[in-house]
Amino acid sequence: MSGSLVSGLGAILMAFFTLLSSIFGIAQNKPDNSVIQGFETKEESVMRIMSFNIRCANVGSDTWEDRIGIVSQTMLDSEADSIGVQEATPEWMAALKETVGEKYAYVGVGRDDGDNEGEYSAVFYMKDKYNVVDSGTFWLSETPDKVSFGWDAACRRVCTWVVLENKATGEKYVHLNSHFDHIGISARKNSVDLILDKASEYADLPVVFTADMNVRQGSDNYNQFVDSGILRDTKFDTSDTMNYCTYHDTKPEKHSKDVIDYVMVNDNFDTMAYRVVTEGIDGRFVSDHYPVYADIVIK
Fold first, then answer.
1. Domain range for residue 86?
2. CA-CA distance, 163 to 130, in Å (whole number)?
3. C-alpha distance across the termini of the chain, in Å
4. Among 146, 84, 92, 149, CA closest to 119
5. DSSP 216-269
6. Which CATH number goes with the domain that contains 74?
7. Where does the pLDDT of residue 17 fall: very low under 50, low under 70, confident under 90, or very high at 90 and above?
8. Closest of 186, 108, 111, 181 to residue 144, by C-alpha
9. pLDDT in tens, 201-226
10. Please, which residues have CB within 8 angstroms of residue 112's CB and are 6 or more apart in sequence?
């Protein structure tokens, strides 16, 4: 075979594999211990709870506006009973109200004024399935009832919570959702205490906590939760689980140890499955975090 023919075949093969790479780029940028994971079908009796940092700015070359369609599609496709979102700016909240509003309503306020300024840690819920019994937002600070910075935090941080009642069965559960500070060491430690205190107020009800905690699995703050006896990490609460980073910044192989997003439950839930949604949409990352969900049942 002539050198020119070999060269030509090589060029064709290279173009072919480049095309495959562009189509399946997300799959090729995944650590070896993972598989592409999307949303699985769930039974009617199973509840699905999701944590989703939707990213307030660019993901690669995609602006937040570019991602409105794929973020809202992710939320709708999830079939989650409730979804805790992080980094949801007022602009994001307006967009989501338009795009997922037929299926999901939400509770939450902007962290910078208690109204519509600053990021939300909102909880979206299936509005045809659930009634809101009670809800609120508190600041992760020494003065949780006031708009405030906490300890050494770089940003105001909040926890939004809601008591939801199943319209058909009357069963209730509590969903708490938060986004911990990325700088403040004392702020994160004290934030854990505030969350655990709030969860303890509803010890007689099923409680779920979703969050971007900005700390890795196995860290001191993480261990505060799992050692408390109040909340358990759903990832380790079932044999039907997976081990994969939740923050990737479009480079999951670089961030393979960055598990910082969580779904935790109290003892009134059993966990059936835990998943990190790594698939993306149309070859695109929906955020710089992967959505995380747990399928759970009330005991």
1. 31-298
2. 10
3. 70
4. 92
5. -TTSHHHHHHHTTTS-EEGGGS-SS-----SB-TT-TTTTTT---EEEEE-TTE
6. 3.60.10.10
7. very low
8. 111
9. 999 999 999 999 999 999 999 999 99
10. 118, 119, 147, 156
Q: Is residue 265 part of a domain?
A: yes
Mean pLDDT of 136-148: 98
Q: Is residue 76 part of a domain?
A: yes
Q: Specify the number of domains making up the chain.
A: 1
DSSP-derived secondary structure letter, 31: -
Residue type, 210: T
**Would residue 55 count as lying in a domain?**
yes
| Contact between 93 and 81 (Cβ < 8 Å) | no
Residue 73 lies in a domain: yes
Strand 123-126: give its sheet, edge to edge.
104-107, 123-126, 82-86, 47-53, 292-298, 269-276
Greatest CA separation for the chain: 78
Q: How far, in Å, CA of 77 to CA of 267, rounded? A: 28
